[in-house]
């Protein structure tokens, strides 16, 4: 290494402050899960009321299974989000498994309601779609900020995983609010929007998670300087 490079590295590192390592992906996924559920529930309770049959619903197997499925999808997608936020040239097996299972859960939920709905359209209920979107808004901003503290290489996949995680947990919070359990209603106004918004996360992630918004390492500065010499 030339003396110029040594001097450059010394100048760049002179004023650098120690960087605290980011928590593990599982820990950050747990933080995102708790914050999303809390904020989504607060938003929905402020704007709407709890479903009147909530106590009875908690004793129905289908209601509980769907709830635990959405919780599992949210946690797994959150784990994948923060594994993808670490710079890596490959998508590792744990990430593939987490994304496959969380996406598969939603495909099963959608397929199940589609078969039960008998291909009928439900009554218009835009308030559920608005409620779901509002419940996702603030947690999504928090998730984007958390991911931006890293340097994701697979920005599209990270965006998809983040939207899937936040959408899954917001949809879970909606099940405590909306009293309509008809398959057609759940399919059109609850389940399909989560998957559609998650797919929108692919281009959204490529836009919001660009390198210029992320943290750059000293090595990045060194290479940039040397390339322009």
How would you summarize the topology of this molecule?
Blueprint: H1 3-14, H2 25-47, H3 54-57, H4 61-84, H5 93-117, H6 126-148, H7 155-174, H8 183-208, H9 218-227
Explain what this protein looks like in three dimensions:
The protein is mainly α and 229 residues long. It has nine helices and no strands. Helix 6 (126-148) packs parallel to helix 8 (183-208). The longest helix has 26 residues, at 183-208.
Mean pLDDT: 87
Number of strand segments: 0
Percent in strands: under 5%
Which regions contain 5 or more consecutive residues with pLDDT less than 50?
212-229
Straight-line distance between termini? 15 Å
- Separate helix tally: 9
The SS-based structural class is: mainly alpha
Concise overview:
By secondary structure, the chain is an all-alpha fold.
Which labels suit this protein?
229 residues; mainly alpha; disordered C terminus; 73% helix; 9 helices
């Amino acid at each position: 290494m030339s003396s110029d490079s040594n001097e450059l590295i010394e100048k760049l590192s002179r004023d650098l402050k120690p960087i605290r390592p980011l928590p593990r992906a599982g820990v950050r996924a747990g933080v995102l899960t708790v914050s999303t559920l809390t904020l989504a529930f607060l938003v929905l309770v402020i704007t709407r009321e709890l479903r009147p049959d909530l106590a009875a619903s908690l004793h129905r197997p289908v209601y509980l299974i769907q709830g635990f499925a959405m919780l599992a999808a949210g946690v797994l997608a959150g784990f994948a989000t923060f594994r993808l936020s670490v710079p890596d040239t490959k998508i590792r097996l744990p990430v593939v498994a987490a994304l496959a299972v969380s996406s598969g859960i939603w495909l099963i939920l959608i397929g199940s309601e589609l078969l039960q709905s008998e291909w009928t359209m439900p009554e218009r209920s835009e308030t559920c779609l608005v409620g779901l979107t509002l419940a996702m808004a603030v947690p999504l901003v928090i998730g984007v900020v958390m991911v931006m503290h890293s340097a994701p290489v697979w920005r599209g996949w990270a965006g998809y995983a983040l939207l899937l995680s936040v959408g899954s947990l917001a949809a879970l919070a909606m099940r405590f609010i909306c009293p309509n359990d008809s398959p057609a209603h759940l399919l059109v106004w609850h389940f399909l929007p989560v998957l559609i918004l998650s797919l929108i996360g692919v281009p959204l992630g490529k836009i919001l998670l660009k390198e210029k918004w992320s943290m750059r390492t000293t090595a990045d500065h060194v290479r940039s300087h040397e390339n322009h010499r």
